[in-house]
Design goal:
The protein is an alpha/beta fold. The protein contains 8 helices and 12 strands. Helix 4 packs across helix 5 and helix 5 runs parallel beside helix 6. One of its GO terms (molecular function) is ATP hydrolysis activity.
Length: 259
């Protein structure tokens, strides 16, 4: 059982490339249970690459450093093993899966995790009861369960569906990659409320975003600024407010001077 303040993710000098181009150039980060971290930065800074490397995306090659997740070498784990062990990635652009009902998709994912934990799989009736309880977290109508995964969903509905998956899977580390992208203010509030309901002393959240507005609703314990494949500054939620007011140029200039 994870206790409050236990280290969930420890990243040291992580380096990674895609198609021969180095994107991550020495990322250092430690996330403990009960914490919410935010990574901010301009386009091309390495934020989304970092999330995909942690999740195990095959297009990204790790060339150096270490990532320890709950005491295990994460880099030796296959992507599906990472997921079953409690790492969840909410995509910036969730994919549509025509012909696969949302309910079937959710049940298969949920039972795969239960099997990994040595627990008995839920039958269709028991799972249906469970998933309907979780719908309240993101204020989704039950009719979405019979539709194909994300097919025909609005941007806000796709993001709510991601949080519904998260509510069912109860990850130890949830990574939200620009979940606020394309959301109007009402959808943003619903998604943020769902995330806040799911945060507790035994899990951790990593929120990746360009903008302060999401952090008005999901309040981080730590804010990190990423640039050129590294985290160049860490602060509290006040850092995000300063970035909103002043932009990123002053942080980049300061990091250049210190380097």
């Amino acid at each position: 059982m994870i206790g409050s303040n236990d280290v969930i993710l420890s990243v040291k000098d992580l380096r990674a490339e895609v198609d021969g181009t180095e994107i991550l150039k020495g990322v250092d980060l430690e996330i403990r249970a009960g914490e919410i971290h935010a990574i901010m930065g301009l386009n091309g800074s390495g934020k989304s690459t970092f999330s995909k490397v942690v999740a195990g995306h095959p297009d990204y090659e790790v060339t150096g450093g270490e990532v320890i997740y709950l005491g295990q070498n994460l880099l030796e784990m296959e992507p599906e093993a990472r997921s079953r062990s409690g790492i969840f990635l909410a995509f910036q652009y969730p994919l549509e899966i025509p012909g696969v009902s949302n309910l079937d998709f959710l049940r298969v994912a949920y039972n795969a995790k239960r099997k990994h934990q040595g627990l008995e799989e839920l039958d269709a009736f028991d799972f249906d009861e469970l998933v309907r309880e979780k719908l309240d977290v993101v204020k989704m109508d039950a009719s979405f369960l019979s539709r194909s995964v994300n097919e025909g969903f609005s941007g806000g509905e796709k993001k709510r569906n991601e949080i519904l998956q998260m509510a069912l899977l109860e990850p130890k580390l949830a990574i939200l990659d620009e979940t606020d992208s394309g959301l109007d203010i009402d959808a943003l509030k619903v998604v943020a409320d769902g995330v806040n309901q799911l945060a507790n002393a035994e899990n951790a959240m990593l929120v990746i975003t360009h903008y302060q507005r999401l952090l008005n609703y999901i309040v981080p314990d730590y804010v990190h600024v990423m640039a050129n494949g590294r985290i160049i500054r860490t602060g509290t939620k006040e850092l995000a407010l300063e970035l909103e007011e002043r932009g990123y140029e002053w942080v980049l200039e300061d990091a250049t001077v210190k380097a």
